[in-house]
Amino acid sequence: MKEPATQFLPHMPEFRVVVFRRQKSKQSNLGVHMIDLFSFGFSSSLTAVQGLLMPALFFLLIGLAVKKAKLITDVKKSAKESTLNVKIFLFDSFAMSPVIILVSLTVNSFFQWHGWTLVSQESWSELPKEIVIVIAVFAGDFIGYWRHRLEHTWILWPSHAVHHSDTQMTWFTLQRFHPVNRITTTAIDSAFLLALGLPPFAVIANGFVRHYYGYFIHADLPWTYGWLGRIFVSPAMHRWHHAADYRFFQTNFATVFSVFDQVFGTHKVPGPCDSKLGVTDQIEASLIGQLGYMFRKKSYRRGRKPR
Question: pTM for this one?
Fold first, then answer.
């Protein structure tokens, strides 16, 4: 027999208390999560800053050896752009670290779930670790080359333009990336390396090598490497890639191995770079201006060549 509705009335105040307590509990949990997120962001920023100490010392010593007293003049000249790089770097390390980790884990879980690997882990384990690492770096640079070319098309250029907007490129320009550019880089590169089934140690080694060598090729150094420049990307080669000269807008996309640019017809290094650097896009030299550029409709005009 169905109980009359009036029998539930005595329990309603208790129900309201339970609901209130649950709402209060959710608000409390939200507060805890916000604190945890802030703590993680702060910890990520601190770790990122600590990670810059050795590269900073390294490039200071190289700068003193190569430029001597001229180094002070160049540091003053690049101070404004470097300050903006610091702001973008701190924003990225604080706000984007959780997102980048989430993207990496999502891509990894997706490939593991579907079992989409071209080469099995067992096959990689039969090779010496040193060989696997070399293959990983070579493969990472291969996908990096094509992903970089994609970044120079109208659909991804507005986010990548932030990186190219530095008119006084130094080693620290490597940290000048729009958050969306970091996400697409992580997603594309990770997907390719996971599809190859490379073991974790090789993927980590690839990231380490390409990251720190990336600092080197962004450094303000005139080196072309001579005949070695036919194998490896030199600072001069990558500086031409950042030149504000239309003849070099679609050249020199690799990070480590210049062979990719030579094979695919994008290699162009006439000597040490003496061109002005930057972009033709009108990007405001401020944190908000840099982050907001890709959200402007006119940044996506089809048919125009990036930069």
Answer: 0.83
d(CA 254, CA 77) in angstroms, rounded, equals: 28
Establish if 213 belongs to a structural domain.
yes
182: nearest Cα among 83, 93, 277: 93
**What pLDDT is attached to residue 14?**
44
Per-residue pLDDT at 109 exceeds 90: no
- 58: CB partners within 8 A, 6+ apart: none
Q: Is residue 307 part of a domain?
A: no
In a domain, 9, yes or no: no
Q: Angle at Cα 173 formed by Cα 170 and Cα 176, nearest 5°?
A: 165
Cβ neighbors of 164 (< 8 A, separation 6 or more) are 242, 278, 279, 307
Residue 215: in which H helix or E strand, if any?
A: helix 200-218
- The rounded radius of gyration (Å) of the Cα atoms in the chain is 25
| Triad 286, 218, 65: Cα angle to 5° | 115
Q: Is residue 57 part of a domain?
A: no
Residue 113, pLDDT score: 80
Domain span at residue 194 reads: 80-300
**Which conformational region is residue 68 in: left (phi greater than 0), alpha (psi within -120 to 50 degrees), or beta?**
left
Whether residue 21 has pLDDT greater than 60: no
pLDDT tens per residue, range 65-101: 999 999 999 999 999 999 999 999 999 888 877 788 7
CA distance 307 to 293: 13
d(CA 170, CA 63): 11
Paired tokens of 265: 């017809």
The residues, any chain, with a CB within 8 Å of residue 242's CB and separated by 6 or more, are: 164, 166, 169, 173, 277, 278
Q: What angle do CA 277, 235, 167 make, to 5 degrees?
A: 15
- Domain total of the chain: 1
Q: Is the pLDDT of residue 31 over 70?
A: no
Return the pLDDT at 11.
40
Predicted local confidence at residue 19, as pLDDT: 43
